[in-house]
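Bump. Still looking for Acyl-CoA dehydrogenase C-alpha cells.
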Amino acid sequence: MLFNPRGYDPVQFDEPTRRLLRATVDWFETRGKKALIDSYIDRAWYGDFLEFAAKEGLFAEFLTPSGADPDKRWDTARNAELNEILGFYGLGYWYTWQVTVLGLGPVWQSENEAVRARAAKLLTEGHVMAFGLSERTHGADIYSTDMILTPDGEGGFTATGSKYYIGNGNVAGLVSVFGRRSDVEGPEGYVFFAADSRHEAYHLVKNVVNAQMYVSEFRLEEYPVRAEDVLHTGQAAFDAALNTVNVGKFNLCTASVGICEHAMYEAVTHAHNRVLYGRKVTDFPHVRRELTDAYARLVAMKLFSDRAVDYFRTASPEDRRYLLFNPMTKMKVTTEGEKVIDLMWDVIAAKGFEADTYFDKAAKDIRGLPKLEGTVHVNLALILKFMGNYLFAPADYAPVPSRLDAADDAFLFRQGPARGLGAIRFHDWRTAYDAHAHVANVARFREQADGFCALLLAHAPSKEQQADLDFLLEIGQLFALIVYGQLVLEQAELTGLDADLLDQVFDALVRDFSAHATELHGKSSTTEEQAAWALAHVRRPVADAGRAERVWAQVEALSGAYEMQP
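Sorry for the wait, here they are.
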C-alpha cells in the first residue's frame, strides 16, 4: 500500500512519466539522507533540486496543459504521484512545486495567449512560478486587496502594494498578482496580472518563515503593468483566484500521505528493533494498537486521495462533485496526517526529536498542510454547503472509473463561475456502503451515518445554531466522516483492498464518529434532543482479535522495508 523507493516503477503511467518519476526518486536517493537533513537544518535554498527539475524538464512536462503545448498535458493522476514523492522527501521540495502550480492557475485560465506562451517558455527554461494573492493585513481574503493598479493613460497601469506569504517570490519567473483598479469600485475593479520578480520595480522584502523554503514578502512600487500583462479583470479575476485554489489545494493531501509514509518506515523500524524491559517494543499491546491505528489511517488517507483524483479528472460543467471532495482532501486528509504522526510519535517518543531522523522534520512539517490554502475551519464550512443534496437528493451519474489514462485535464482551467455550490448533486452515497455491508465495522459506521440523517430530519440546526459556527463545525465533522468513508469504500472496491484492512479503517471511523458525537453533546447550544441523539450514537467498533493480528502483520512487515540511502 505504501510508496517505497526500493524498486519503484510506476507501471500505471506511460514511459515518459515513468522515466521522470523514477529520475526524481533516483535524484533524492543518490543525494542521500545526510544531504537531505543537513540542507533542512541549515535552511539551505533547494537550488540543487530546481537545477535537477530544470535539467529534466520536470515541471514543464507535468505543469503545461496541452492547450499551451500539444506535446504536454496537465494530468492530475501523475501530478498526485509526484506530490507524494516530493512530500516523501521533504515539504520544501513539494512547496516550490505547489506554489508553481498556484502561480500557473490564473495563466492557464486566461485567454491571454502572449502570457500563456511566456509561461510555457519559462517552464521549459526551468523557471518556477508564484501566486501573489495573500497580503499581510487581509490574508487570502480575496474580497479585500491593497494592491492598487492606477491607469497610466496608455491602456496599462502602474501597480503599487505589497504581497505577503508568497512562495517562490524570490526567484519566480512569473508571479500571478491579484489587485484592484483605483478607478473602479466593487468586483469589476479586480485585476489579475503577470509580474516578474526580476523587474527593478519588484522589491523583495524578506523571507517570512524560518525554513528551507522561501516564503516571501514583496512590494511593487509603480510596477508597469502593460495591457498584454493582464490575465483577468472584474468577476473573472475573482473566479480565477478561487478556481486556482481549487486546483492547488488538492495537492495538500498527497503531500501529507508522502510525509507520513516516510515517517512510518522510520517509526516501525525503530520500534520493532528496540528492546525495553526485556521485551521488544512492538510486543507491548498499546504499541501495536497505536501503530496499527496509524497504518490504517494512512491507508485511508491514500484511498480517499486516490479516488478523489478520479472525480477531479471526470469533472465537467454537468459534474462538479469534485468541489466537495476537494476541500475534503484539504481538510480531512491533512488533519488525519497529523493524527498518524502523533500516534507514531507516542511510540518512538524521544527518537522523534533526533536531528538525524526524517521523523523530526515530518513532525514539524505535517502541521503546516492543514493550515495552507484556507484553514481547516474555512474548508469545513465550505463542505457544509453540499450536505443537503449529498445526503438527501442523490442524482444519477454514470460510474466513474479509475482515471490513470494519459489525458489532459482541461476542465480544471475552464471551471467557470465560482458559485452555485448548493445546487451540485451527487450519486447515492449509500451504494458504496451497501456493497460492503458484510464488513463488520462498515455496517456499524453505516448505523451512525443513517442516524446522522435522522438527526438532520428530526432535529435540524435552528436558525440560531446555524449562526453558531462552533456548533455547526461539529455537524460538519460528522458529515465529513460519511463522505470520507464513501470514497474510501469506492477505492477499496476498485483496488481489491484486503477486507481485514478495510475493517480496521472503519474501526477508526466508528471511534471518530463517536468522538465527534460526544463533542456535539457537550456544546452549549446543543438542544436536549440533539444531545440525546449524540449519546445514542456513540458506538464501540466491532472487535476481532484475528483481524487485529493479521493487520498487525502488515504493519510489522514495514520494519526494515525501506531506509533512505546515507
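The longest helix spans residues 285-314.

Edit: fixed formatting.
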